[in-house]
Structures are given as C-alpha cells and as structure tokens.
Amino acid sequence: ASLRLVLFGPPGAGKGTQAQLLTDCYHLAHVSSGDIFRHNLRQGTPLGLRAKEYMDRGELVPDEVVIDIMLDKILSIPSEDGFILDGFPRNTWQAEQLESALTAGSRAVDRVLHIDVAEEELARRLGGRFVCRECQAPYTHLGGAPAPNCERCNGELYQRDDDRPEAVQKRINVYREETTPVLAFYRDRGLLVDIPGQEAVDGVFKHIVEAL
Ligand code: AP5
Predict the structure, then answer these.
(1) Percent of the chain scored above 70 by pLDDT?
(2) What 3-state class would DSSP assign to 140?
(3) N or C: which end of the chain has fewer CB within 10 A?
(4) Which residues contact 69 (CB under 8 A, 6 or more apart)?
(5) Is 133 part of the annotated catalytic residue set?
(6) How far apart are CA 195 and CA 205, in angstroms?
(7) Residue 157, C-beta contacts closer than 8 angstroms, at least 6 positions apart
(8) Residue 145 CA, ligand 1 centroid: distance in Å
(9) Residue 52 pLDDT > 80, yes or no?
(10) Catalytic-residue membership of 160
(11) pTM
C-alpha cells in the first residue's frame, strides 16, 4: 500500500534531505510548503511576495495564506498514490485542518517521522547550507571557495535569505513555541515516531526505513 507520511522536525533537521531519499526509494509525491512558497516567489506571484515578508524574518506565514494552497496541493495527489509532507502542518490548527481534509477524502496520515536534532547542530548546518535553484536539493558547503553546482541536476547553488544567523535563531524559537505542540497532537493518535537525527545522512535514513 502507498505510504502517507509527515516529515517533522526543526529547521535544519534534514527534512528536505530525507524527503529526497524517501521519494527516490518509495516513489512518493514530495510536498514541501517552503519549496512551494519559494517557487511562488521566483514566479513573482502575490502569494510568494506575501510569504516572503514572513519567511525572511523567520516567522510562520499566516494560516490563511498557507492552508488553501497546501490542502489543494495534497488533495490533488491521486488517492492511490503515497506522499511526504515536509514543513506542513506547522501548528495544531494546520494539523486539524489536514486531518479533516484527508478524512473527508477517506485518507489518513500513516506515520509522522519526528527528526530530532539539538539546537547547536541546527545552527551549524544552516550556516553552511547551499540549495540548488533548480531542484532544491540541499548541500553543506563550508569554507571560502565558491559553492560547486548541484550533483543531481547541475543547477546553481545559493544561500537562502532566511539562513542568516538572526533568522535561523528566530526560526528555532518559532519551532519551539508554535510547532512543537503538533508533536502531542500526533502522539495522542499513535502516529508519532522519534528518529535520532544527529547521525550522518545515511544513518538517519536507515532509522527512518526501519520505522516504516
Ligand atoms: P521550510 O522551507 O519548511 O524550512 P525549515 O522548516 O526551516 O526547514 P529547512 O528547509 O531549513 O531544513 P530541513 O529540515 O529541510 O533541512 P535540510 O534537509 O535542508 O520553511 C521556511 C519558511 O517558510 C518558514 O520559516 C515559514 O516562514 C514558512 N513556512 C513553511 N511552511 C509553513 C507552514 N506550514 N506554515 C507557516 N509558514 C510556513 O538540511 C539542512 C542542512 O543540513 C543542509 O545543508 C543539509 O545538507 C545538512 N544535513 C541534512 N542532514 C544532515 C545530517 N544527517 N548530518 C549533517 N548534515 C545534514
């Protein structure tokens, strides 16, 4: 049967990294709220411009901007196909809206994978992160030399505006205050699995595969 997963965790936990490995391995649709906003921004849509104001400050984009676009995207996935949600839901209200929308379509989330990483490590990873402009694959690049091109598609690598140290700290605080309550929501439903996220990428992936 197809898997319907939520990848959950603080900024820099490795959600995007693991989502890519999971989609390659299990052929799931990858729905990343952050990627959708950044894509809209590149196209200059009103949604992208509105989201950017909040993203650059490290704050959550308001629920009314997020909810329709995310639910439309998720509900447009054929019901026999699996998916991975990355970056959504990010507060309890979004989790409730997702649950009712999926229930109405006779679907449900199978597992919520909580990638757990200490705050010092998050700041270290995001400070050295470069992302592909084309396929959004993330890389860590430390040191002064210019970042190379993407290993997957040869696209140009860039640093995100919200990976400045002040924005990173704000994102971590917002995660702690507004997003962690979602863990209890899914724990109560018996869906939450804690994944140790401090190991190397392959080690974390192994833990995820074991949990599925
Ligand atoms: P979003 O794009 O979702 O960003 P995020 O949650 O802050 O997560 P990141 O993309 O920063 O990190 P990640 O966990 O994917 O880590 P990655 O794999 O890249 O959201 C951005 C903004 O959009 C939000 O701040 C908000 O404003 C808005 N937004 C989005 N969704 C919203 C919603 N639902 N409601 C309201 N607002 C919303 O890895 C990080 C780095 O570490 C990379 O360099 C990677 O190479 C490296 N790395 C990964 N794994 C490992 C490992 N195991 N060991 C060492 N390095 C590793």
Answers:
(1) 100
(2) strand
(3) N
(4) 36, 47
(5) no
(6) 9
(7) 130, 131, 132, 133, 139, 141, 147, 148, 149, 150
(8) 24
(9) yes
(10) yes
(11) 0.93
